[in-house]
Amino acid sequence: MKLKICGISDINILKYACEEGVDFAGFIMVDDSPRKISNNFLDSLETFDFMETSPVFVFVNPSVDEVKKVITKIKNPILQFHGDEEDNFCKQFNQPFWKTIRIKNFQSLEAINDFPSADSLLLETFSDDAYGGTGKVFDWNLLKNISLQNKFILAGGINIQNLSDAISQNPWCIDVNSGVESSLALKDKTLIDQIIRSFNNG
Predict the structure, then answer these.
(1) Among the CATH numbers 3.90.1010.20, 3.30.465.10, 3.20.20.70, 3.60.15.10, which is that of 2-201?
(2) How far apart are alpha carbons 185 and 125 in whole angstroms?
(3) Whole-angstrom Cα distance, residue 131 to residue 128?
(4) What pLDDT shows up at residue 63?
């Protein structure tokens, strides 16, 4: 099982995550997100040593140029599409991509079939007023009645209190964002460390 820390916008936190062997580091490219990385931060990633950690760039309904900007700067990025993008849009960049499915009810899971080209599907909590980062958990019981052929990533409100329950859902990867923040958009090394230790022991 893999671990992703998402919403990183501080280079020291990124270094720590990579040194600790986190599988994926997520960077938000969305204008209205408090976790959006700056252009300077993106530029600094061009020469950053990710070690064994893979960078993941999160977009919501981006233009082609916005995506290409990342592809030209960063070696071997994973693209995560978190909006209303269709399969053809996502696959045109010839990069590994993850597609987010926002889960409201059992019918939400039908969208899984709409993305045959996705390398993985990220299951996130539905919200009427946000595409993600809600800090809320969806009903994981919905996952018991489906067969996920694609590798799936479990996201949405995961923290140290519910991590063992998240692991028991047997996802390919667990995505933690607000659950390792001491305040909005401020990642906390102590909370990250707790998650990593618990995850490795779980």
Answers:
(1) 3.20.20.70
(2) 18
(3) 8
(4) 98
* pLDDT at residue 182 greater than cutoff 90: yes
103 forms bridges with which residues in the sheet?
Answer: 125
CB burial class (10 A; 0-12, 13-18, 19+) of residue 27? buried
pTM score, two decimals? 0.94
Cβ atoms of 112 and 150 within 8 Å: the answer is yes
Assess whether pLDDT exceeds 90 at residue 143.
Answer: no
Residue 97 near residue 80 (C-beta atoms within 8 A)? yes
CA distance 96 to 93: 9
Residue 106 structure tokens: 């059992």
8 Å CB contact between 23 and 171: no
